# Entry
Amino acid sequence: KHSRSSTIMQVTEQFRDFIRKHQKDDLNKLLLSANRYPDIDIPFAVEQLASRRQIKDKLPSWYDNEALLFPAKIAAEQCSSELTGLYKQHLVGENECVCDLTGGLGVDSYFISRKAREVLYLERFERYCETARHNFGVLQADNIRVLNTDAVEYLEQIEQVDLFYIDPARRGEGDKRVYALEDCEPDLIRLAPVLLQKAPRIIAKISPMADIQHTLQLLPQTTGVHVVSVKNECKELLFILERTTALVDPLITCVNLTAKVRSPFHLPWRTSGIRLLEWLQVSVVFCMSPTHRC
# Structure
């Protein structure tokens, strides 16, 4: 029998060679032929192969790094892309300490760490943390501290950071996909006032299917929204929340990311009232269409 924990920490050249040779295999058939490979943890290998297929196009630098590992296929499915990870860097200050409350695969923590002074990666699943420590070591991201803890409970131990990053899980009971912010976990609506007592800013990654107007009503601390598209398909809504008592009209930034070009434009939320709102909602829909550039 193979130990999953030891497998993560002791990936051999034999294992990497196996992954190279079987990257195009039928994974179901590979699972059924496990007895042919007594020296390989086949379920773990299949999980790595499936995860790598998920990130091949959206996270090419990680795909090309054979030393990186993946805790579960769903982590690869749900992680940010390389382009959106890089985009988040310009929302972070060079001397900031950032706390990622929903660590996951660690893609956003990693890209943020290339700009920020320090990153706290919080994740409640031990296997994700173990994999993150391995991957951050491979990537030489030595300014990321990995903590295996429940983010909401750990908040009591945090005195002050410069920025919280949160990507609430969009999976409900029975692994059913949810889109409404109220249905996501952790509960950002409830947490936002608490977080803003411990940091002046929050970046919240919201489903691209979310209703912007409704979400702004739920998160009145919002000072900006970034509608982030990749190659003309809307991928993320980033809500910027700030600790301020002033009434601020959120600035809407729409950006389309390609491998070479970032094309942003900005909209003051209430400049044109309802007409602007209707136009923006249509443009967000168009962002998900391959025929429209946002």
